[in-house]
Amino acid sequence: MKIIFIYLISLPMIIFGDESGGLSFLNIPTSGNSASLGNTITADLYRPTSLLQNPANIWQNSQHTFSISKRSAITQTNYLNGFYGLKIRDLTFCLGVVQYGVNKIEEYDTEANFQGYFNFQNWAIALGTSKRMSGMLFGIGVSHITQNFTQISYNKENFLGLDIGVTVMDLLYRNNNVILTVSYVNKIMFDIPDFQQVNSATSNNILGIKTLFRQNSISLSIFSDLLFNANSKMVNMRAGLQPQINFKNNVLTNAGINIGLNKLPLYWTDDDIFNDDFIEYSRKLSIGGYLEIMLPVINQNMLINYAYENHKVLPASQYVSIQFSI
User: From its phi and psi, is residue 123 left (phi > 0), alpha (psi between -120 and 50) or beta?
Assistant: First the structure.
């Protein structure tokens, strides 16, 4: 079965349409763990929050998993999401809702006279499923996205997202101390009702690798992505580092520190991109950590993630994510 994965990633990249869309909010990390690991596609492996990154990775061992995440920043932006994963035999089903907004945007007329404020709102509702077969995960996800400016004359836009992903686990069979995972996703977008393909910041092909080194109670995970984006005609790299300690404790099971880098351009076709300080304004550095706790009495797993993201546009973004597994 794993030869199928090699065949899939060797296919030509999908040809994108000529339209553009302001749907980059779907590239906002959906959890504190993902944010602090550079938003790499294997950062949320086996969690429902990976639905918008790679639906193959929503596969989980728990029967029920609930997750909620909130991002705060010093600007007038707001971001909130919730995800639910359900496992039935070898299948996992997932539902996710994402809300993103920017408040109090100033409006001016052609003569620079202040006209008041307006707001910008994005919503996404996503569904996905993942199946495990022979050491591989296959997933497909669909999402309905709305984009709207309020308090001004603007027609609300609707889009349909389609994500197809595959993940190969444990490529190094006989090495218990090193675990290699490779993940690939193809993300495309269509407008509604015309169903014309949209070329946006979320229309990506992403190839990700996770390497886990473990020795006794200590482990180290290295995450890396190659992201091919037709809209910017660039190849970006994302990376993350996660040292972890596993505790022999009835309450605290493990804890870790995360460090991440998002958007390091490796290749581009237009030198003019750099005239606008593209690298400086898109690159993100992040740091965070997490605790995994087994709640006594009810015997449920709770995961708490925190992330601090720093970049030019939002210099102090913070994430808090809480996940329950039953």
Answer: beta
In percent, the amount of the chain with pLDDT more than 70 equals 84
CA distances from 63 to 44, 48, 54 (A): 17, 12, 20
Q: pTM for the complete prediction?
A: 0.86
Which tokens in the block code for residue 252? 């605290």
What share of the chain in percent tops pLDDT 90? 49
Burial zone of 304 (CB within 10 Å; 0-12 exposed, 13-18 middle, 19+ buried): middle
**Spatial distance between the Cα atoms of 175 and 257, rounded to a whole number of angstroms:** 25
Q: In the structure, how many helices (H) and strands (E) does the chain have?
A: 3, 16
Query: For the chain, what is the domain count?
Result: 1
d(CA 89, CA 191): 35
Q: Is the pLDDT score of 60 beyond 90?
A: yes
CA distance 274 to 117: 32
The CATH number linked to 229 is 2.40.160.40
pLDDT at 149: 80
How would DSSP label each residue in 85-150? EEEETTEEEEEEEEEEEEEEEEEE-TT--EEEEEEEEEEEEEEEEEEEETTEEEEEEEEEEEEEEE
Question: In this predicted model, what pLDDT tens digit does every residue of 206-264 receive, in sequence order?
Answer: 999 999 999 889 999 999 999 887 666 678 889 999 999 988 777 889 999 999 998 77
Q: Token digits for 54?
A: 């790679």
Asked if residue 165 lies in contact with residue 87, where contact means CB atoms within 8 angstroms, the answer is no
Task: Give residue 296's pLDDT.
Answer: 78
Alpha carbon 172 to its chain centroid, in Å, reads 26
Q: Which domain holds residue 179?
A: 2-325
Structure tokens at 186: 């193809």
Which tokens in the block code for residue 96? 């996710």
For residues 308 and 315, what is the distance between their CA atoms, to the nearest angstrom?
Answer: 9
